[in-house]
Amino acid sequence: MLSDCHMHTGFSLDSDANPEDMIESALAKGLDAVCFTDHEDKDYISEGNQWTFDVKEYFDRMRVLQEQYRTRIPVRIGVEIGLQPHLGAYYREYVGQNPFDFVIGSVHLIGSRDPYYKEFFEGRSDADAYEETFLETYENIRKVEDFDVLGHLDYVTSIDTKFASAGQGVIVVKMAELLEQYPQWGMEEAVAAANALIRRARMAFIPNDMEYLRAGGRVSNATALCGRLLSIHPLIEILDGYLTATKKLRGPCRGGRRVLPWVSCG
Question: For the whole prediction, is pTM greater than 0.90?
Answer without folding.
Answer: no
